[in-house]
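Hey, can you fold this?
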Amino acid sequence: MTTLNTKEFLDSYKTLTNAKYPMLNANEHLVLSTILTVSMEWEKKISEVQDLLDKMTKEQNRELQILQDIKAGKK
């Protein structure tokens, strides 16, 4: 059985959402659930879903770094 590595996605989503919207609940598990549901409906393979989660994690980390740089006055 193949499993998905979702921890990095959940952590990056929650961190980015909290940085952008500190007063809101991140709802990272709801977001992941939606991604997985849509992926199943579109009959995506586990590897395709993992690739998507990895891509989104990188994008979220990149956006978080930009926000942190702006906050620190680097940009």
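Oh, and this one too while you're at it.
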Amino acid sequence: MSTTEAFLEAPTLQFTDAAARKVGDLIRGEGNPNLMLRVFVQGGGCSGLQYGFEFDEQVQDGDTCVENLGVKLLVDPMSVQYLTGAEIDYREGLEAHEGRKLRWVCS
């Protein structure tokens, strides 16, 4: 493990099996097995923060990496402080927001 990666033994955020399966499917669809999901927080939105998701091929200095089912989720050092205790999940259908759970929802 390089010094730029912080692999967590007890993750500060949860990356559910459902989310890992969906992300894995999307990565396979992109045809690039080097892709990882980056989750980030940036200024904006009604609460002053917005959550974002994007694919990335590079682990940056200080990134936290959570792996589930062979899929890696990356969080930068600034964002991890806002995402501690969050759950990254995927469910299909309509669903209400529940606390600090981040979900992709397809209707």
